[in-house]
Amino acid sequence: MSYQSEQNTSTRILMGPGPSDVHPRVLKAMSIPLVGHLDPEFVEIMDDIKEMARLTYKSKNEMTFVVSAPGSAGMETCLINLLEPGDEALICSHGVFGSRMADIVGRCGAKLRLVEAEWGRHIDPDRVRDVLKDSRPKLVAIVHAETSTGVLQPLEEIGKLAHEAGALFLVDAVTSYCGTELLVDEWGIDAVYSGTQKCLSAPPGLSPISMSPRAVEVITNRKTKVQSWFLDLSMVKNYWEGAKRTYHHTAPVSAMYALREAYRLVLEEGLEARWERHWENHRRLRQGMEAMGFEFLVEEGYRLPMLNAVKIPGGVDDAVARSRLLNEYNIEIGAGLAKFAGKVWRIGLMGESSSENHVNILLSALDEIIN
Amino acid sequence: MSYQSEQNTSTRILMGPGPSDVHPRVLKAMSIPLVGHLDPEFVEIMDDIKEMARLTYKSKNEMTFVVSAPGSAGMETCLINLLEPGDEALICSHGVFGSRMADIVGRCGAKLRLVEAEWGRHIDPDRVRDVLKDSRPKLVAIVHAETSTGVLQPLEEIGKLAHEAGALFLVDAVTSYCGTELLVDEWGIDAVYSGTQKCLSAPPGLSPISMSPRAVEVITNRKTKVQSWFLDLSMVKNYWEGAKRTYHHTAPVSAMYALREAYRLVLEEGLEARWERHWENHRRLRQGMEAMGFEFLVEEGYRLPMLNAVKIPGGVDDAVARSRLLNEYNIEIGAGLAKFAGKVWRIGLMGESSSENHVNILLSALDEIIN
Asked: Among A120, B26, B55, B132, which residue has the least CB neighbours within 10 Å?
């Protein structure tokens, strides 16, 4: 049986949609023996993480902590704590993750209003303005960096429209967080979630979230219980906040060690410098890919720096090429999702995987495979 | 700011209700660089984990895999996938975790029937028999090892009663799993969940679950969507099962590395030998504690081997004593929960923390503190 063998995984170069390469300091942090999850020393680690989450979200939000599950659980946490049955939610959807939000809205028993854009395009704020003329949703939600299409969605104008309509503004920052400008307080974002395995370059499994005082008020004034016990922020917050922490669930101690170290690396580099690094390597990749004849899926000005969606050139077999990249070069890139399957590649330059060397390695390998 | 310092946590001896001490091989596994979560090599790791989960659950259940979140999310996964609004659920509650199940039943919109026992006592099957005379619940749920009280709950008779009444039998095995006999198939358990940070001695954060074919049929024939997207097994299963795996969420790769290694350690020791080790060290602890004048909370025959609830002797200040254990001896034991706060200690002998040395270290320290 294969489980009888010691783990012997290959040393991959992770250039897909996440996880990204993890810094040795972060890997090492997980080999530190565990303390208890209510140990005063662990509470201090949780407090450090909260503080660094605030710094990286550019937010003063008191309710800023980490859901003990991956980014999709962060998405669910935000939606189900803010929505009650019968509420209306306006979801802007231009890819897989917008559709996922819409699905969760239904599971909340809330009414769904949908503004859609073609996959690969951004959401035009005028479309949102139109819908808000005849509706009063409790929240407007949108994906900042649509990982399925590579679109960078401008947020400020839609945030203003949401607030003018009296709605909360909820943002999915799973892929953008720590990789490009994201100003939670300045942009009026009321609820935001992310994941750890993208531009933060920690292992997957945790979801940093932040809620504005307005969002906290909505949560506090709920009339019904949140449908999930595990993700009910009215209880989770007593585990993360206050002088005396109350047991809710058992936090993933080792994963928190890793997250703390990953945040430290972000702050040592400087958040703004990190954003700029992601842009620089995106430009490098773009130049090389275009020289090789690749076309980007997304129009200029709306492209993500950390997730580059390129059209697979005619005559290139998707599965064969990706499999050669993986098996001959140890490079992982992302396949196209849903309607882009077989048509698009998603090249991640996230966190530790956003480097000149990563760009060069991939360009060289692609050149050998395709030509 | 404290986050600017390198992590410098103390080397604790974990003898509380979990996490337990983690073997260096498991810690080391997490320092292995990550592969992608859809990498064929990761799929193989997932398959190894499924296989070892079946071996340790003593089950042939096809639907046996790991929820990407802690044990409480495993509890929620089982309940919300099996229950639909209007269904009736019989919850046997004799501690914190039974109450938690009851809470979740309410959030499912299901009707709750409760059989309660005093905290520190087990559930008498006759009580269940009585309730089943005038009700036809969809499931009967019970906690095998009630971590809040130290009670080992006999399961077989209640399982039979559940089946005779046409109900599914759901078991919380968070603390019992890999620490005392648990025979999922032989005892007719239809749904079971556990955690990784107890007798498995992996870090917290994952929840192995297993569903019988009967339970799978119930899930397949649901009329309504599961209220949680993240925990919806109809989707999660396509990530864990079948020839072609479909992306659902991103699995916590490093945590899975750790779990695989923890399972390997269990199987190298032998599951039955591991159960026996837990019982041996329980007897050792008991002898020493009783010699010091401690009384166990639970009557003999119903005591857990891995979680020993003892009454705090008169004249001993709970907080002071536990704080001295932690700060002077680096030993963590568990406080009493809820109505047992200040009255009971919970001494964990779980997984790597179930050893003669652990017992001796604790007895010596307690002797110095108390006398």
From this structure: B55
Instruction: Kindly state whether B45 is in contact with chain A, defined as any CB-CB distance less than 8 angstroms.
Output: yes
Within this chain, do residues A167 and A313 fall inside the same structural domain, yes or no? Answer: no
Give A-chain residues touching B44 at CB under 8 angstroms: 2
Using one digit for the tens of pLDDT, what is the confidence trace for A313-345?
999 999 999 999 999 999 999 999 988 999 999
Q: Cβ–Cβ of A257/B42 closer than 8 Å?
A: no
Taking each helix axis as running N to C, give the angle between helix B271-291 and helix B253-269, from 0 to 180 degrees, rounded to the nearest 10. Answer: 80
Same domain, A253 and A121: yes
Note whether A32 contacts B: Cβ–Cβ < 8 A.
yes
List pLDDT tens digits, range A82-137.
Answer: 999 999 999 999 999 999 999 999 999 999 999 999 999 999 999 999 999 999 99
Q: How many domains does chain A have?
A: 2
Beta strands in A173-316 (DSSP E): 191-193, 207-211, 307-311
User: Closest Cα of chain B to A188: distance in Å?
Assistant: 27
Computed over every residue of chain B, the mean pLDDT equals: 97
Closest residue in B to A148 (Cα) is B247
Tokens of B11: 């080397």
Local structure of residue A252 (DSSP, 8 states): -
Residues B9 and B97 in one domain: no
CB-CB under 8 Å, A72 with B70: no
Mean pLDDT of B106-121: 98
Question: What ipTM did this prediction achieve?
Answer: 0.98
Distance CA B193, CA B100 (A): 14
Distance between CA atoms of residues A305 and A197, nearest Å: 16
Query: Domain range holding A153?
Result: 24-267
Cα Rg for chain B, rounded, in angstroms?
A: 21
- B36 to A332: CB separation less than 8 angstroms, yes or no: yes
Model's pTM, two decimal places? Answer: 0.98
For chain A, positions 123-162, list CB contacts with chain B under 8 A. Answer: none
A104 to chain B: which residues are within 8 Å by CB? 229
